[in-house]
Amino acid sequence: MVQRNESELCSPVRQLEASANTLVPLMVAAVVLAFCFSGPFPIDRYLHAEGMSEVWADRAAGFLVLGIPAFWVAIDGGGRRATIGMRRRRMEFRCHNGRPLTFSRCFLRIVLGMVLLPAFPILLMLAFIDPQRRTLSDKLCGTVIRFCDAG
């Protein structure tokens, strides 16, 4: 196993691997919720029956299907300073000066990363160009992704 310095920055390729490792359980949870809400627990039909318009009932159901897993990833990652995929790759969020992040700043970084997810290929290319290997969400939140020595 390669010994890494804790201050060593993670490459964009490692960040991509960590993102993929985070997105897989997120998507599995969304699919399971979508199945549950469309089959045994038709939440959109329930909301429509309670007086909500059909369009808003569908939007609310979609928000629950995508929002619950995303909120779980953000809360989990914010508390541990790393997403699921980052922990598997022994990476963590740090302030640009190397100090540990607060929960709120880490939570904001993860949520911002999810909001910017559709632009991920472009943001990944920017990380290759940046000397500190930071994406737009890292720059906006003042964070870097570093290796950690947690086993």
Salient structural properties:
7 helices, 63% helix, single chain, two-stranded antiparallel sheet, 151 residues, elongated
Can you describe this structure?
- There is one protein chain.
- This protein is mainly alpha-helical.
- Helix content is 63%, strand content 7%.
- It has helices spanning 12-38, 43-49, 54-80, 84-88, 103-115, 120-129, 136-141; strands at residues 91-95, 143-147.
- The protein has a two-stranded antiparallel ribbon with strand order 1-2.
- α3 crosses α5 (103-115).
- The model has no long low-confidence stretch (mean pLDDT 79).
SSE diagram, text form:
Blueprint: H1 12-38, H2 43-49, H3 54-80, H4 84-88, E1 91-95, H5 103-115, H6 120-129, H7 136-141, E2 143-147
Tell me the strand percentage band. 5-15%
Category by helix and strand content: mainly alpha
Large-scale geometry: elongated
Low-confidence stretches: none
- On the 0-100 scale, what is the average pLDDT? 79
SS elements, strand count? 2
Counting DSSP H or I runs of 4 or more residues, the number of helices is 7
Offer a concise description of the structure.
With 151 residues, the protein is mostly helical.
